[in-house]
Amino acid sequence: MSGKLWIPRFLLITLVLISLRANSQCEFSFTRRNKAFHFNLASPIRNSPHGALSEDGFYRVEANGTVLWFQLCDLLIFNHDPPRCVGCEDCGGESHCGTSCSALVSETIRGYDVCTSIGHASSTKVDMIDKEDPGKGVIVKMSGGSRNQNCSLSVSVICQKNKIDGPLTMVKTDSCHYATELRHPSGCAVAISRHGSGWGWFSTLLIIIFCLFGAYLLGGALYRYFSLGIRGTDVIPNLDFWATVPHRTQSCFGSIFQRFRGPSHGQRASYSQVNF
């Protein structure tokens, strides 16, 4: 029975690890003018349980006879309409074309549809579209190459809160660099907080000290009350010491103040008489 359950458990763990990897690659945080902007393209949102990731396992856009497939922050998955082109050696092979990369492009060369992998999940990076305007969205950059080509794909995920659009267009620059865009709610900052508005390290340290001090007083009082049978104010541990703390503090600050203030008027007068 345990042998039969091993495979489902293994598959479940694999799916969880893949999900965690996609989430970590799709997360991005940016600080600008005392504000922290956080994005997670894989986080579920309303009407989009996979965030900006395609529920079909891939996005597809075609322009001028060139076909582009891509998936944000994860591997391509083709449950239908798989790529049919030669040249998938580094992206799943001819029988599983596109399944080992994050972006694949097909172009007609001498009558053949030739594939080129232009992005891998391991090389995916997320950055701001415009650092002067963090609310505009993020850009996902992925790179990959085949046949000694250095190729890349840039996908702009533009903030659009109410609906999802794209990808509709594709732009090619140089020989093997492509760009497209999505308009998606995941491109909007999901959490914006003022930097420094929460507890600082000093405040946190003070809270920890006060909590430890309170635990010390409570624990000591309970021990003295139940174990030693002490009653009244004497139940407080080291009561004599704590009673002298205010006087000790006052004396300490008084001596420090006197040192900075200098000698008193009587002392200065005695100094003057000695000099004459």
From TrEMBL:
The chain crosses the membrane at residues 199-223. Coiled coil: none annotated. GO terms for cellular component: Golgi membrane; phagophore assembly site membrane. It is found in: Preautophagosomal structure membrane. GO terms for biological process: protein transport. Residues 1-26 form the signal peptide. Keywords: Membrane, Protein transport, Signal, Transmembrane, Transmembrane helix, Transport. It is a single-pass type I membrane protein. This is Autophagy-related protein 27. It comes from Microthlaspi erraticum.
